[in-house]
Here is the input.
Amino acid sequence: MIMNSSMLQLVFATNNQHKVDEMRTAIGNFIGIMGLKESGLNFEIPEPHNTLEKNALEKSRTVYVATGKNCFSEDTGLAVHFLNGEPGVRSARYAGPGSSAAANIDRLLRQMADSRNRDAEFRTVISLILEGNEFIFHGICPGSITRQPRGNAGFGYDPVFVPNGADKTFAEMSPEEKNIFSHRRKAADELVRFLQITHGKN
Ligand code: ITT
Here is the structure.
């Protein structure tokens, strides 16, 4: 990515390279972002709380306290209506600690069995720490859960999620197509709008 010297640089407090790639697609070249590994930082950040907001804050505060650098994090969950909002904040470990995406999907499909209500939504919360001040942004993508996984692109629950207005799962879409619908892009839009106002760029 080409960066100019006046571009705002933010550490993205994540170990998930898919998130970094998607956030770059969403943000374009308005700000420069670097994931933890790209920044040479080695953190395993716990997600001990019961809300996406608190977990996102935990991640950004951990990195800010350790580095003093402007940074942001995000926490994302999949809320399934039939399961009263589960797996939600437990999305990453739905099938147990350290579980694979395939195991999480498998548990989700078994829990839903042949339920006719397949409504669900991805929710993303971004926590930004800029010059010591904390800000929160949200993005939601409504959609539905398929009966079988479809597609190989993306990550996490993408093979079983079809956003409203599409007939493909996220895992059957190109990064640009996912970006049209994505919870992450919507939260990133809020972040960019805020930075355009406060930093007066573009
Ligand atoms: P960091 O905490 O390091 O940012 P993570 O992969 O642990 O990365 P989350 O806790 O936010 O990220 O992810 C919660 C779960 O939701 C996890 O299983 C992800 O694979 C999944 N997930 C997050 N965003 C997703 C997306 O856009 N599509 C499909 N699944 C997603």
Q: What stands out?
A: Residues 14-16, 19, 47, 75-76, 91-92, 101, 104, 154-158, 170, 184 surround inosine 5'-triphosphate (CB under 6 Å). The domain at 8-198 is CATH 3.90.950.10 (Maf protein).
